[in-house]
Amino acid sequence: MAHLRLLLSHSRCHPHPHRLLPLFRFCSSNSSTSPPPPIKPVSYAPKPQPPPAEAPSSEAPTDSLPRRFQQPPQPQPQNPPRQFTRQEMRFANEPGPAIAPVSYPSRAAAPLPEDRPADGAGAKEEDLRGEGERIEKEAQWGRMPVFGLQVEEETVPHPTLIPVVKRPQKVAIDLVDALREIKASANEKKRNFTETVEAHVMLGVDPRRGDQMVRGAITLPHGTGKTVRVAVFAEGPAAEEARAAGADVVGGDELIEEIRKGGGKLSFDKCIATPMYMPRLSKVARILGPRGLMPNPKLGSVTNDVSGAVKAAKSGRVDFKIDKTAIVHVGLGKVNFSEESLRENIGAFVNALLLAKPVGLKKTSKYVGYVKKFTLSSTMGPGFSVTIPSLSAAADNYTKVQVN
């Protein structure tokens, strides 16, 4: 019977009759020999199901159950807020949530010194008393005489504040009074040489700017009072003319080589050159330039009139130029000159200083803003500030003399 059912089910799945013949033969041969084997039912273990949810009871807490069997806490339904009408809202005054007071445990305070037990107080007092006695004994030993000599105690004065004493500023004086003071100070201090009267002028210009450079030359009416050695770089007729005018050193290329190989030793105080020798002087420019001896056309030391330049240098020609601090330093005579001679020399220098005033210096008058301070002094004597009106009078007097 089982074989027929299998055959019928197979024929339904496979409608072709020629494919059922092998199966029919197999079934017929097996049915004739032995019955079909019994079919044993197969059973599987049932899948474990979680227990139904039950209301938590006080006897069996949910924490003792496994985590996978615990249910998440269900949110408790809240009472919906009360809805008030517009008229009730005017009289609604419901109290807010009550706040429970929080109390913290009081902290025990540390005991004060007077509340602490006095254990060992007597021992501490004895230690302090012993320390005081030791200090007193050391002080007595320090005051004891050594080899019969009493040791004097050193007294140290208390520190005090020393007031700062400022030097009183010197008041500018007249030019004639300044010359008298210089002569008096030079006579008091007798020197082994004759001091030079020097002028130090502070100008209101900026030396870093090229258009505010102050430099010039002036031939003093009464000379500088010292012998000037003049060197002339020329050849041919110009050299003969320089020797006739009284030049101390005259030469050409051989003089340049002598200066270059001389190791910085020079035998002259002024240099004059013809225009043709200026390119050749570049070999010794590093030697002559720092000493202020380099010939310059602006100062009249580069000229074809060699004799006139030599005579001017011998008679007291002075070159001046501002330094990095905008101050001009120049010597205007000796202390043994008369006051009138020194006054005329100073007037000539002030006049030349005004002629060298830069064009780029604006917003200044003739003196104010240009000449800030004019000081006269001897070589080793004190300086005396001179008033501007007295300098202006000396410069005007020199101009009148030159015109006449």
Silhouette: elongated
Q: What is the overall number of helices?
A: 11
Widest sheet: strand ordering? 7-1-8-9
Rg for CA atoms = 62 Å
Q: Beta-strand level of the residues, as a percent range? A: 5-15%
Largest sheet: 4 strands, antiparallel
Poorly predicted regions are none
The run of helices and strands is: HHHHHEEEHEHEHHEEHEEH
**Alpha carbon gap, first and last residue:** 171 Å
Number of strands: 9
Structural class: alpha/beta
Helical residues, percent: 25-40%
Report the mean per-residue pLDDT as an integer: 78
Explain this structure to me?
With 404 residues, the protein is an alpha/beta fold. It has helices spanning 2-13, 21-33, 86-89, 121-143, 175-188, 237-245, 253-261, 285-288, 306-315, 339-355, 388-403; strands at residues 196-203, 215-219, 230-233, 249-251, 270-273, 317-321, 327-334, 371-377, 383-385. Strands 7-1-8-9 form a four-stranded antiparallel sheet, covered by helices on one side. Strands 4-3-5 form a three-stranded parallel sheet, with helices on both faces. It starts with a helix and ends with a helix. The mean pLDDT is 78. Residues 55-71 have a biased composition (Low complexity). Residues 113-132 have a biased composition (Basic and acidic residues). InterPro entries: Ribosom_uL1_bac-type, Ribosomal_uL1-like, Ribosomal_uL1/biogenesis, Ribosomal_uL1_3-a/b-sand, Ribosomal_uL1_CS.
